[in-house]
Specification:
about 80% helix; about 450 residues; single chain
Length: about 450
């Protein structure tokens, strides 16, 4: 019986296009609400906390999400995640229209959306492996990266251009429409499910044990543990600076929304260029070496340049250098894990990977704002000997302290990459761990119409 719904690469492309549209709407809302929150509070902490409340629930619930993805219908989980994000946007829209929107409402909406969003990534990634043959994985993963880059390029530009005409309420309306479109594409596409005996086995296991399985699996390998701790450190360091990018630029430009939008757009353009180059090239043979080199260059040149910048030109160069090699780094990292972890274990192991690798970044999002407002900004606005010594590097006054954060944590990120080169279990991970064998074929989408 053949499904009448789109499947395979065509089906994936339909879902991908829905996500592109949805990400554009989400990016426009994030840009507009960032401007609103900065105008209302004038504090980096408030902006950082919005990111924290969206990020932290997503990370904490990931182990549970990974275990449930192996048990439940993955299409239903993706649809539920999109609907929850849409409901959060509707709530913000109603509060804004009635004049009752406050900063804590953004915290609550971000937490609600983030909690349901924890199911999105593991369900999406696991579905790719079932929808497509192995030879199309690279193309699909590149498309996913390009979707985010497209949003980064065009969402700030579109939001900046439309804000003066339709306001924040109009931007939120667009976001609601794009969420609906994404759900529609998921409804019409056939998404296979894991092999029936794997699903039955998963349902028979203890849920708590399944949530912890990925951690035990990673801990049994020095190579996987080392690689994961490297990403933990990098995400912690990069978040400490990246969380204050918007307030740094707004502070240094007198709230110039156009400059902020242009810099954010350049991040996306660089990601598009990097993703296209990797897609054409096919990626490096020694993935771990390329991954470590990309981290070193991104930290040393991208972040440091952003920190010392005081003009659109310099920030643009920093933005371009920061994200140019990210597609290669992400692609290499994902390929290493995907080739070493059995497919029927990937949901649980990848969930542990996400939690450990990114929880450092989630924890430090609010800390970044506090450090900016309470430590680095007062330091560079003062007259101490240290401030005078650092002034030629990052300047003085509003935004200089946050610039110093970029420089400092960028240098520490480069040091972490050097540690990765020096530690053999990480440097030789591709030789130490054997590649996996292909897993069982998928079951058809039970929700698909057949004929």
């Amino acid at each position: 019986m053949k499904s009448s719904r789109p499947s395979g690469m065509f089906g994936f492309s339909v879902v991908w296009f829905g996500q592109v549209v949805s990400l554009l709407g989400t990016g426009m809302t994030q840009f507009a609400l960032t401007i609103w929150a900065w105008q209302v509070t004038g504090q980096a902490t408030a902006l950082a906390l919005v990111g924290f409340f969206g990020y932290f629930p997503r990370i904490v619930l990931t182990p549970l999400a990974g275990a449930l993805v192996d048990r439940w219908n993955r299409k239903a989980l993706m649809i539920t995640s999109d609907l929850a994000a849409g409901l959060a946007t509707v709530a913000v829209f109603v509060l804004y229209r009635t004049g009752g929107l406050q900063i804590w409402h953004l915290f609550a909406a971000a937490a609600f959306s983030g909690a349901f969003g924890s199911f999105q990534f593991p369900a999406y990634q696991a579905s790719i492996s079932l929808m497509l043959p192995k030879e199309q994985y690279t193309r699909a993963n590149t498309m996913l990266g390009l979707a985010h880059s497209i949003s980064t390029v065009f969402a700030p530009m579109a939001a900046g251009a439309l804000l003066a005409f339709i306001g924040i309420g109009g931007i939120l309306t667009i976001d609601i429409v794009t969420f609906s479109f994404a759900v529609g594409t998921l409804l019409i596409v056939a998404i296979p499910q894991p092999a029936a005996h794997h699903v039955a086995e998963a349902k028979g296991r203890n849920l708590l044990s399944d949530c912890l399985f990925g951690f035990r699996y990673v801990a049994a390998s020095r190579s996987l543990t080392g690689l994961l701790l490297l990403f933990f450190a990098l995400n912690l360091l990069m978040t400490l600076s990246g969380a204050v990018l918007s307030p740094m630029i707004l502070a240094r430009t007198g709230n110039d929304e156009l400059i902020l939008g242009t810099v954010q757009m350049l991040f996306g353009i660089s990601g598009l260029v990097g993703g296209a180059l990797v897609s054409i090239w096919g990626g490096p043979k020694r993935k771990i070496l390329a991954l470590l080199a990309a981290i070193l260059v991104t930290s040393l040149f991208g972040n440091v340049v952003l920190g010392v910048g005081r003009s659109l030109v310099v920030w643009g160069v920093g933005a371009f250098l920061t994200t140019l090699l990210i597609p290669m780094a992400n692609g290499a990292s994902h390929a290493i894990w995907q080739s070493k972890i059995p497919i029927h274990l990937q949901g649980r192991v990848f969930s542990a990977r996400i939690l450990i690798g990114q929880i450092g970044g989630a924890i430090t999002i609010p800390l970044a704002g506090v450090l900016a407002d309470r430590a680095f900004e007062p330091l560079m606005s003062g007259t101490s000997a240290l401030a005078r010594g650092l002034a030629p590097l990052v300047g003085r006054g509003p935004g200089a302290g946050m610039g110093l954060m970029f420089v400092l944590f960028g240098l520490l990120g480069a040091a972490a990459a050097i540690v990765g080169f020096a530690y053999r279990p990480i440097r030789e991970i591709e030789r130490i761990l054997p590649d996996i064998e292909p897993d069982d074929p998928a079951e058809p989408d039970a929700t698909a119409t057949t004929r």
